[in-house]
Amino acid sequence: MNSTPEHDSYEDDLHEQIIGALKTVYDPEIPVDIYELGLIYEIEIDEGHVDIKMTLTAPACPVAGTMPGMVKSTVEQVPDVKSCEVELVWEPQWTPERMSDAAKLQLGFM
User: Fold this and answer.
1) Is the bond preceding residue 62 a cis peptide, omega within 30 degrees?
2) pTM of the model
């Protein structure tokens, strides 16, 4: 992987665009986007190929079968993203402490 300042800036910009896209995906049962909920654990970018590790609020979440596909298709809409793979992980387990302050405020946790 090339680590020139231009490349780092490019990946930083792409990372921010990916986060912006993730903020358009909502858990259907909670009125907060998946990024602010803290469901996204890792975003790795390698020459336009994106790998995302994410979780759900609970293993029995009704969207377990569809959420990774929704995330994949949303991220692949970002310009300069060539492909996206989404891995659903259960460790560490999601807890409300993973939510951003904005999400906690919106849901009445603050």
Assistant:
1) no
2) 0.87
Length in residues, the chain: 110
CA distance 84 to 76: 6
Domain boundary assignment for the chain: 5-106
Least confident among 26-30, 91-95, 96-100: 26-30
Phi, psi (degrees; rounded to nearest 5) at 68: -55, -40
How far apart are alpha carbons 51 and 42 in whole angstroms? Answer: 8
C-alpha 35/C-alpha 54 separation (Å) is 9
Place domain 5-106 in its CATH homologous superfamily. Answer: Fe-S cluster assembly (FSCA) (3.30.300.130)
Query: What are the angstrom distances between the C-alpha of 91 and each of 13, 27, 41, 96?
Result: 28, 19, 10, 15
Instruction: Return d(Cα 97, Cα 104) in angstroms, integer.
Output: 9
Residue 62 is classified by DSSP as T
